[in-house]
Amino acid sequence: MTVAAAEHLRRLPKVELHCHIEGASRASTIADLARRNGVEFPVDDPADLYKFTSLNQFLDIYDVICASLQSADDFHRITYECLEDAVSAGVRYREMFFSPGFVIRLGVPVSTVWEGVSAAVVDARADLDVGCRMILDFDKPSGPGHALEMAEFAAAQDRDLLIGMGADSVERGIDHRAFAEAYAAAGRAGLKRTMHAGEDGPAENIAIGVREFGCDRIDHGFRLLDDPALTDEIIDRQIPLTVCPTSNVMIANVVPDVASHPIARQRELGVLATVNSDDPGMMRFDVADEYVAVAEAFDYTLEEMEAIALDGIEASWAPDDEKAALRRRFESEFADLRSEYGLPARA
Ligand code: ADE
Ligand code: ZN
Predict the structure, then answer these.
(1) Which of the residues 16, 22, 81, 199 is marked catalytic?
(2) Domain coordinates of the chain in residue numbers?
(3) Is the beta carbon of 20 within 6 A of some atom in ligand 1?
(4) E strands within the chain?
(5) 6-340 maps to which CATH number?
(6) Tens digit of pLDDT for each residue in 158-210?
(7) Is residue 46 pLDDT above 80, yes or no?
(8) Taking CA 110 as the corner, what is the angle to CA 102 and CA 78, rounded to the nearest 5 degrees?
(9) What's the CA gap between 68 and 1, in Å, rounded?
(10) What distance in Å separates the CA atoms of residue 122 and residue 131, rounded to the nearest whole number?
(11) Phi-psi sector, 90: left (phi>0), alpha (psi -120 to 50), beta
(12) Which end of the chain is more exposed for a tag (fewer CB within 10 A), N or C?
């Protein structure tokens, strides 16, 4: 049984499938953009910006971040910087959310957002040795009209850069079935579909996503095991969950610590449950930290952590040839790291 050091897990090649550009932005950058854009900043020290104790408070801070983002260049900067930070956590490929609903409310058009985000993805691919595709998340509280508008916008973009549509923000008190038309439009356009569901809301929202909206993945899925028939279906259909254990502790507050998180049980049962950070800037906790937390909480061996990294490739929406190349690369990097740390070869 081989246990890995934290530094080894940081350097382990990874795929990340659940990360928001706004929540991944650096507090110092947000402070700088707020000053340049004349936005009143609520704290003196930018590090104090990211302090929250509930999902609602977290989303209030999200609003402050978004008020600081006004031009395409602003979106380019946070997108590019968070991909730089991803590389330092070992990420080789990321499918990442952007959530224009917040800035649309403040008068910034989605086309401005996308101009900056898409250019940063192209630049990061060229400069940083990281693959990336984007997922447009509509804002659930903004309602079905906004959702449909976002589906139609996403449908018209380059599919190699904007691969899917998702939905985020609050879950409680939202009538999820109201988004059927938006998901149908996304499906007709060939967009992949996902949804934040079962984070602090019931397993029923996961069921709506996979049975009624054709979701190819579910973001969080914390409450999945509450519904055994749905769990069987998710396992049979191998619909991945993009699980964010520390976020569920820090943001949604649905579990006291990572050791109490259902991800270990989900994986044991055969759920394709991947490990992700959600909002690494705001939590000051990236996906490498998350790998360490999960390994420690469940006494996972290096083999299991490598399997989690490979499951990220499986659960991704990259084309098959890209997935095969990622698998070859991961296997080779796993072997190099094991040899560097004086560990036996993978069985
Ligand atoms: N947007 C960013 N992080 C989120 C989360 N954990 N839940 C819902 N919406 C989000
Ligand atoms: Zn999220």
Answers:
(1) 199
(2) 6-340
(3) yes
(4) 14-16, 91-98, 131-139, 162-168, 192-193, 196-197, 218-220, 241-243, 273-275
(5) 3.20.20.140
(6) 999 999 999 999 999 999 999 999 999 999 999 999 999 999 999 999 999 99
(7) no
(8) 70
(9) 48
(10) 9
(11) left
(12) C
